[in-house]
Design a protein that fits this description.
295 residues; alpha+beta; 3-stranded antiparallel beta sheet
Length: 295
């Protein structure tokens, strides 16, 4: 398996990109870094209060709780669901992600489908793809506030939305604590306000090879970028973004901005598999999302 990061965005305003902040900003700025979902997490705060470390502990706890729900590499709620086919009394975070996944699945005509984990595993092992595709399909998932039940042999992955959801949750915590200018980077970007002495956060977009292919300004908005060849799976080196019906990605890199990082995350994943007309139809169904790059 050839692996590199699926999301490729560089923060161009500040030391997150190895650049230099204005001297006055450096006096009060803080950059917090961690690891979650197998990737780097950074939060940039141009100015902080005396309660910074208490707030950081809240952020750390939230990240841990989200990983306990959605990680595929730990004893998470999602792993238990995949192993047993049933999850009783799902928590609020799981219910939130299910609701958003259902919305994005519908808007994208099924291109966003968390049931592709079964197909992903078949590609990775060189297994029975036809059988895996027969077991997939979001509409086969039964979910309510009290229970989630999967069809026989089905498994889910929320890798196409969970990091965006986490970025939204962290941004919400910081906003509740009184922070108005900040940027959360989990690969998916959640921005609020702006850095000192600027009008917006400057974000550059890179493709799977690390080449800068676009840039934009973010203020009170989120951005997600997906590159199917950012990870290649199995002996056939299959791009890791999969459609349940077997169609291949159309685009090399797609960036979507939205009010929610989870929404941008899910849409950028699905749009890799969709033609321009299909993308336009999906955007007409969902408010406050924009296609920023499609190459």
């Amino acid at each position: 398996m050839s692996v590199s990061r699926r999301r490729f965005m560089v923060i161009a305003a500040g030391t997150l990109a190895g650049m230099t902040l204005p001297r006055l900003a450096l006096a009060t700025a803080r950059i917090w870094r961690a690891r979650a979902f197998g990737t780097d997490v950074s939060i940039f705060l141009p100015a902080i209060g005396q309660d910074f470390y208490r707030v950081v502990r809240s952020v750390e706890r939230e990240l841990q709780l989200i990983e306990k729900e959605f990680s595929l590499f730990a004893d998470s709620a999602l792993v238990r669901l995949n192993e047993s086919g049933i999850l009783k009394n799902p928590g609020k975070r799981m219910r939130d992600v299910f609701e958003m996944s259902a919305e994005i699945h519908e808007a994208t005509g099924g291109a966003f489908d968390p049931t592709v984990q079964t197909i992903w595993k078949a590609h990775a092992s060189g297994g029975d793809l036809a059988g895996a595709r027969a077991r997939a399909g979001w509409r086969k998932v039964e979910h309510s506030a009290s229970q989630i039940r999967l069809a026989s042999g089905m498994e889910l992955t929320f890798n196409g939305i969970a990091q965006g959801y986490a970025a939204d949750r962290l941004r919400s915590i910081l906003k509740r604590e009184g922070y108005s200018d900040l940027l959360v980077n989990m690969g998916e970007i959640g921005a609020m306000g702006r850095p000192e002495n600027t009008t917006a956060w400057q974000v550059r977009i890179a493709d799977a090879a690390g080449q800068i292919v676009g840039q934009m300004q973010l203020k009170d908005r989120s951005l997600a970028t997906s590159s199917p060849k950012g990870m290649l799976i199995g002996p056939q080196h299959q791009p890791h973004i999969l459609h349940p019906d077997g169609r291949h990605p159309i685009w090399n890199t797609v960036s979507v901005s939205a009010s929610s990082a989870a929404l941008a995350d899910g849409l950028s994943t699905a749009f890799c598999l969709m033609g321009k007309g299909e993308i336009e139809t999906a955007l007409a169904r969902i408010s406050d999302a924009s296609l920023e790059l499609c190459i």
